[in-house]
Structures are given as structure tokens and as C-alpha cells.
Amino acid sequence: MGYRQVVIKKSDKMKLKDNNLVIINNEKERKIPLEDINFIILEDNRTIITARLLSEISKYFISLIICDEKYEPTSIIFAYNNHYKQLESFSLQLGLSDELKWNLWQSIVKKKITNEIIALETTTQDEFVINKLKQFKAEVEKNDVTNREGLAAKMYFRSIFGSQFIRFYDDSINSALNYGYTIIKSCILRTIVKFGLNSFLGIHHHSKTNNFNLAFDLIEPYRSIVDIYVYNNQENIEFPLSFDTRKELINLLNYEVISNNMHCTVEYSIELLVKSYIKSLETGVNCLVFPDIINDK
């Protein structure tokens, strides 16, 4: 897998040449080996992309993220049917029992709330909300049938971004949150595909119109990483997002977490999580390995 995130602010054309991504702008060319790339983020909606390049980047499991005029990601293009055991992986997903599914979602929600607590401890230090989230975490049942995730999220967002904050409102904070979440979700999608899983087949999310149900499940413990960044930088975040902010949000993939008792990047922890999900499918036992946010306070 590659290690570079390529952000294209302005270009006339993107094409393939000798296994290189070639970016052409004002008749000048820049080449980047495909084997070095894990993400391409395209911000210029005038860019021409050749079909041959699109085909080749899928072979390297490179995710192509296309943004709108406000630099917010609107589309994700990723590889499909490139794994040698695709049918076996799909069969495992389809055979996931309700009991294990409920248990997996319970553990995901608990870890999400745990990381929200850590986020509050490192930001607002709001003891009342922290204690309420600890209570909600203890009350999470199988499949989170009492929706402790939703109750925790409502209090959490109001604590970290203020009582007037409205999620999905068209403002700088929501724009930064959406951008950061999409970058992490794209990394999860790329890893899901790399290991032959079907992104349609989720654990808890099961929308018929959502191609990324599984990624929406697995991203939950990672959201607080984006939240902490946005909280710490909210006074400097512009709308639309500045190039520097977008770069820093992309770089959250290199943020240090603890996973499987070792320090690693967010990106590597995602691979450990996806592998542990596959192990859960194979064994019928919850083996999920989650990232722990490091509390700097």
C-alpha cells in the first residue's frame, strides 16, 4: 500500500504514463509513482481524467476523492472486485449471526463513547457531561437498543462545540468535521476493499441506498480524533476551508493512537481493525481491535 496523500488544487488533466500519475497544469507535467499513493484528493472540478488512469488506480487500491466548489468531498471512487477471495469474504459477511452483529455494535458504541469522553477530557473538561457519558457507556446494551450512542452524541456535541451548535449546519465547524470524517472513511473503505469485504454489508448500518454501510460502522471510534482537531483550531478555521486546514485534516491519518497495545498511526490502526473484523467473522467471536485516543492532559 502507498503512503502519500496527493491533493490536487489545480490541474488541466490527469493521466497515466509508465505506472505514474501524471498531473498536467499549464502544459507542465508532474509525475508521481502510483505505488507511492494511497489517496488522490481532487479539488479542481475542471480537471479531465482519463479512463485508463481510473482503471489503473483501482489496481493499486488508490481512493480518488472528488470535492465540490467548497472543497467538501462529494464522491469517492475505490477499487472493486480486486480481491482473490471475494466470494469467500462476502459469504462470511452474509453469514454474520444477529447475536454476533449485536455484540459487535455494542462494543463499537462503547468505544465511541469512550473516545468521546477522552475528547472532552482533553478539551472542555466538562465534568457533568463526562460523567453522563460514563453512565451512558455503562448502560449500552446489545445492539444499543436504548440508543445510548445518540444520547451521548447529543450531549457531547453541545459540550465540545457549544449549546448553539447544530450538526450538519452549513458552517466552518461542520465543514471541517465532514471533511475530516470523509478522509478517515475513505481510508476505511480502501482497507475494506483491500481485504475483500463488501462495503454494502454493514454491522449496524443497513441502508439500501448507502454503498458504505460497513465504513459508517467502523468509523465511529475515530470521529473524536477529528473533533479534537476542530475544537483546538476552530477560531482559525475558515469557510470554505483553507488549503492549510484541509492538509491538516488529511494528516490526521498520521495521528498517533494506541491499538493492540502499541503506538501507531490512525491509518495503520484501521488496518488492524478491519483484520480483527474479518477474524470475528471467521471465528464467530468478537475480536475487534479498536484505537485508543491518547489523553495528553
Description:
- This protein has 297 residues and is an alpha/beta fold.
- 46% of the residues lie in helices and 17% in strands.
- The strands form three sheets. A four-stranded mixed β-sheet has the order 1-5-7-8, with helices on one face.
- The longest helix has 25 residues, at 98-122.
- It starts with a strand and ends with a strand.
- The model has no long low-confidence stretch (mean pLDDT 94).
Strand-helix topology:
Blueprint: E1 4-8, E2 13-17, E3 20-25, E4 28-33, E5 37-42, E6 48-49, H1 51-59, E7 63-67, E8 73-77, H2 86-94, H3 98-122, H4 127-139, H5 148-161, H6 172-194, H7 213-218, H8 223-233, H9 243-250, E9 256-259, E10 262-265, H10 266-283, E11 291-293
Parallel strand pairs: 1-5, 2-6, 5-7
Antiparallel strand pairs: 2-3, 3-4, 7-8, 9-10, 9-11
- The chain-level mean pLDDT equals 94
State the share of residues found in helices, binned by percent: 40-55%
Q: Decide which structural class fits the backbone.
A: alpha/beta
Please give the number of β-strands. Answer: 11
Measured distance between first and last alpha carbons: 34 Å
| Percent of residues in β-strands | 15-25%
The main sheet comes to:
4 strands, mixed
Structure at a glance:
This protein is α/β, with parallel strands linked by helices and 297 residues long. The protein has ten helices and eleven strands.
